[in-house]
Amino acid sequence: MTNRDAILHVRGESRYVDDRLTPEDTLFGAVVTSDVACGTIRSVDTSPAESREGVVCVLTAGDPPGENQIGNIIRDEPLFADSEVHYIGQPIALVVARDAATARSVARGVKVEIDPGTPLLDPREAHAQGSLIAPPRTFALGDIEAAWDRCKWIVEGRVESGGQEHVYLETQGTVAWPAEDGKVVVQSATQSPSVVQCIVARMLGMPMQRVEVDVLRLGGAFGGKEDQATAWAAMAALAAWKTGKAVKVVLRRREDMRSTGKRHPYSSDFRIGLGKDLDILAYDVTFYQNAGAAADLSTSILERTLFHATNSYNIPNVRATAVSCRTNLPPNTAFRGFGAPQAMFVMECAVRKAAAAAGAEAEWVQRKNLLSVGDEFPYGMRCSSPNARRSWEMLEDQPETAVMREAVSVFNAEHALRKKGLAFMPVCFGVSFTTTFLNQAGALVHVYSDGSVGVSTAAVEMGQGVNTKIRQAAARTFSIGLDRVRVETTNTARVANTSPTAASSAADLNGNATRLACEAILQRLVRSAADLLGSEAPDDISLLDETVQASGQATDLKWEALVQHTYRNRISLSAQAHYATPRIHFDKAVEKGEPFSYHVAGTAVTEVTLDCLRGTYEVDAVRVVHDLGRSINPMIDLGQMEGGLVQGIGWVTLEELLYDDEGRLLTDSMSTYKIPDMNFAPGEIQAEFIQDAQYEGGAFGSKAIGEPPFMYGIGTFFALVEAMRAFRPDLPDQHILPLTPERVLMELVADLSS
Amino acid sequence: MIEFLLNGKVIRSEASPGEVVLDVVRRDVGLKGTKEGCREGDCGACMVLLGTPGERGVEYYAINSCLLPVGTVAGKHVVSIEGLNGPGLTPVQQAIVDEGATQCGFCTPGFVIALTGFLLGDMPLDPDSGYTAVSGNMCRCTGYLSIRRVVKKLCAAFAGTGNSPAARLEAMISSGVVPAYFETVPRLLAGMSGETPVCGVAGPPGDALPRQELDAGSSPPPEMDDTGGQADPGNAILIAGGTDLIVQRPEEVSEARLVLLERREDLRGIRIEAKDCWIGAATPVEEITRSEMLQELFPGTDPHIELISSVAIRHRATVGGNLVNASPIGDMAILLLALNVDVILCAGEQRRSVPLKEFFTGYKQLNREPDELVEAVRFKRPSGGSLFNFEKVSRRKHLDIASVNSAMMITVEHDVVRDVHMSAGGVAPIPFYLASAAESLRGQTLSAESIRRAADEACSAIAPISDVRGSGEYKRVLLGRLVRAHFIELFPGRFGEELLS
What we know:
The structure holds 2 protein chains of 2 kinds.
Chain A: H1 4-10, E1 27-33, E2 39-45, H2 47-50, E3 55-59, E4 84-85, E5 91-97, H3 100-109, E6 111-116, H4 123-128, E7 137-141, H5 144-147, E8 153-161, E9 173-178, E10 184-188, H6 193-204, E11 211-215, H7 230-243, E12 247-250, H8 253-259, E13 266-274, E14 280-292, H9 298-307, E15 317-326, H10 340-358, H11 362-368, H12 387-397, H13 399-414, E16 418-431, E17 440-447, E18 453-457, H14 466-478, E19 485-487, E20 490-491, H15 506-533, E21 541-544, E22 547-550, E23 553-558, H16 559-568, E24 574-580, E25 585-587, E26 592-594, E27 598-611, E28 616-627, H17 634-652, E29 684-690, H18 714-727, E30 736-737, H19 741-749
Parallel strand pairs in A: 1-12, 8-30, 10-11, 14-15, 18-19, 28-29
Antiparallel strand pairs in A: 1-5, 2-4, 2-6, 3-5, 7-15, 8-13, 9-10, 9-12, 11-20, 13-14, 16-27, 17-18, 17-24, 21-22, 22-23, 25-26, 27-28
Chain B: E1 2-6, E2 9-13, H1 21-29, E3 47-54, E4 57-64, E5 77-79, H2 91-98, H3 108-120, H4 127-133, H5 145-157, H6 165-174, H7 185-190, E6 230-231, E7 236-239, H8 245-248, H9 250-255, E8 257-260, E9 270-273, E10 276-280, H10 285-290, H11 292-297, H12 302-305, H13 311-316, H14 319-325, H15 331-338, E11 342-347, E12 350-355, E13 360-362, E14 365-366, E15 373-380, E16 386-394, E17 402-413, E18 416-425, E19 432-433, H16 435-441, H17 448-460, H18 472-490
Parallel strand pairs in B: 1-5, 7-8
Antiparallel strand pairs in B: 1-2, 3-4, 3-5, 6-7, 9-10, 10-15, 11-12, 11-15, 13-14, 16-17, 17-18, 18-19
């Protein structure tokens, strides 16, 4: 099967925002940002910059003709800071010049005077000061206060998880240009074309029909271009509107890392109780989310944290509270997992600590409490899949698991300064946007008179292979060759009101919308074929391998001839279709409902080797059993599994965001913020897919794959803790991630007497 | 004007010699397949092949075009991804497609270039060498497992191909890894001017150097641990590899007149002279890695060199640059301190020699006059009984800057330490010679106790600061561990966990 994108990629012919052809006199915009995390702007002196050779204009908060505002869910984020600044890297002005070098060099010289205040960086401190994005929310199940009495073991703890920089290889960027009649065309590297369209329109004070957003593809996004692409798009659009020229804004790596939000750091408290049979009877958890300076998607992310507070476990009495805290960091944002990884990490810390208190193996307690069909989640939905438990058992039963366990114990007996550790990590992830209205998608399909097919949808291709899956959906519905189908750019003039490409759901939603549009055209084609063949019964007509079948027998009528005939008979060969996920609902007033189309479940086992002398480590192997539904494209899904997992491992090990006391990001480059490389990736990843799922929620029976594998990476954290404990049996609880080589060594040498 | 061959076409660039090839290729020539990911040699998205004509024909290696001044490619062959494309896919491209080893695609041209460079180069075609070849390429999507499958597939497909550049080139042309026009490249380059009129080439030896002054203290803290050159107020920059200088001060380099030390053949190479070993200042680190001479002197050091940056950076970064850059954490400086090398400085006809341990006088400050050029390092050939070890711990093992690095050379006779030199980086404002620790061992019987004492001595002699590479406390603990590690590595089976007690 030909993957068009892959062929373009290996030839360097794929075009990203910075590569697309632009008019010869395209201008370049460079952003002036705040150098203090919190303060009052006294003055912004743009006049020296404006008089510099090559500079066309300098735009500031007063320039948008509409609202100087890019907040999506909550309108709390100015495009350009006006009276106050709230984080280092916050945009204050845009220098528009004839070329990038001039724009950057002038931008560096723009004088901004700010009276600095004291930055608030810690979410608990923000909470204590009442600095919140929105009121706290609580999900509750059973009667937790009554349940504690029935617990034999009760433990508490505090858990910290760090943020994570997306490091999409393509940095943020946009090119915008004016079209006639006040229209602006915006080529943006965004996961949310309609959000960009809506906000640009609002900012320019014009209706959305005058803003056309076009997205060809993204060079990686992972959530980092869901809301965070908007600012640059709005700046380029404003500059284009103002100058009448095409304007490009593309960030350099360091500019991007300083100014854009990341995965939310969380600080959490838990209390967990086990009954005498090691059942988890009660779980109380509070999450303090470090949202940064503006809401961005934080409230939705917080919600997903709550939905995943109990991960794969059946717990009858739960209270989960979550607080989104406003601090002076860049607005934190979506990142693969969207709040769920933070929740699952706390849950695992709690389960392990409880098991230790009861003197039981962690795996025993984990396994004992896995979800079964019919179990109730804290938000009222019932578990409909047996795969949480089943995946664990399948993994446990694989002969390699026994080999792995034996190898670990033999190795540890034989080595004094190197230790291996092993950990199981279950994952149960709900699929659908938790904001119910977003679970819709549109597709526009054209069959051209030569038989070739063009498909436009709401989905944005960012490496996850959604365009290939959509091509497959169209080709499969028509029963034609894949090469006949082309997926067009994501364009708001062709498909309107697009939901972001996010929540692992783009293939589900857009694949189904594509199928529906193709089915509508197919019906017309079948009637047309019946007419041509003189058949009275269109029900007997079908298409198979580009050939019309009558009563199951191939006829001489081929796809191209059928299309021509239909066209000449003045029958529409285009269709638009809309898909909305059925059944889902959620009532925030009571925090109950059925928010997910389905759950994806699986289990991973991770083996690591720790060098106890140096504090360094390697991930030897990760083996996963994962519920995939009926995969449309196993190669793409395997790639998502491996890539998501390694990103998750990065989050819990190497990837560390360090800030100074002023709120300045110190790890603001790829030389200081280290993502996994070829050598750090696990020695082996073995994935067994459960493909017999009965549920039909995804496209053609497939299930979402984008986010769930990320969370298998959490297993690496606990495997490392096991290895540390093998070296140092009195090791205290490890509840802080990332577990960097520095943290490992310092924990191994820590003096516990003090 | 700078004349070079880009893919199959002669380019006459009006760019300033210090502008990087990445910008010339994308902005001026308009080829967009080469991507900008970080501009500091840490992602590999911008890799191109650089072909240099020499005695063995045109030799190619993959290199980060974001750190490559266009002045240095005059008379050479630069190959961007577009220069590999033919009507179909090359075997490298096909393997990536077949294994699903591309997702968003942004890093992919860099991987294609690095893997093509691997096949064209002289490293053995085995998977481990292949992984090394892409050690400077980051991918955020795939998790690398599929890329490993590509490497294995390519190694299997090309097993048995000879290691000489000529044999490789012929095999890769005939199998379509590179297009047929590569055959004509030597001829095209021969007719080309290697001159870069606006660039100077320092030397030959004896010539007056452009006036240069150390610009100590004005530069931000070092980010990369190799490279060289320093700016002078007269707008001329002596540049060796430039792999740190261009990261730190790109605008300055792009506008400056460059003096290209890499053109000074007399500053390059590794020689054994009587009892001494001589390494030219402009010798790239990768050349040292490959030196059979040094491998004989220091058997088993390959894995340590692997920890220095990436192979693409090692092709550019030089010994002298690493020393002059004076990063307190420079890997080469730490290695050379333990070899107890002398630095040879020359100013015109004048030469003098300074022990490396006296060369660093303060943070980014050197025992070096403004008109002096680092010519080479020289050290005594180690005696048969000397053992050498290098340790480096960084957050990520490969292509990262050390939290602490350390090296030791030791000679033990009848269990008594005859001589020992020890160094450590990341623990002081300069690459640090651990004099007192070494002194505590000299003449002592090798024992767990004497090793522990030396480690304690090392830890008490240093003053590490807290930064992005780790807290000061961590670095102190880590150095204690690395000093112990030297002995555990060099005397296998003899020392172990008792050193930690």
